[in-house]
Design a protein that fits this description.
This protein is mostly helical. The protein folds into 2 domains: 1-40, no CATH class; 44-114, no CATH class. It has helices at 8-14, 17-27, 78-81, 90-103, 109-114. The longest helix is centred in the last third of the chain and has 14 residues, at 90-103. The two termini are 27 Å apart.
């Protein structure tokens, strides 16, 4: 068993220049900054799909303008888990963040990142 989040091949993929270049073109950011927080999800046959969710919840260490990327490591079938965006969901995300900020106003940045 390996600790994938510390494996060199995984760290190299996170620092991939093509991915960084795409992010720069997509967002207009000159120097995208990689947060030192990554998540790796493995699709297990016959498991349930990941439900609709808001990625900022998992990336508390970053600003609300963070961009997350879903990068498959091999071919993915539609049934096996492509990425879908929920149209009009920006309002849901903004409401979620407003509520979080109101409820967590007394937490330190470190405590917020652990939630």
């Amino acid at each position: 068993m390996i600790s994938v989040h510390e494996a060199q091949f995984y760290l190299d993929s996170c620092a991939n220049q093509e991915l960084r270049d795409f992010i720069s073109r997509f967002t207009g950011w000159e120097k995208p900054h990689l947060l030192q927080r990554t998540m790796l999800r493995a699709f297990v046959p016959d498991s349930e799909l990941t439900p609709v969710h808001f990625d900022q919840i998992y990336l508390r260490a970053g600003p609300p303008t963070s961009l997350t990327a879903w990068v498959p490591t091999r071919d993915v079938s539609l049934e096996g888990g492509g990425l879908m965006y929920l149209e009009g969901s920006i309002d849901i995300g903004q409401q979620t963040e407003t509520e979080f900020a109101r409820n967590a106003h007394n937490l330190t940045d470190e405590e917020r990142a652990r939630i």
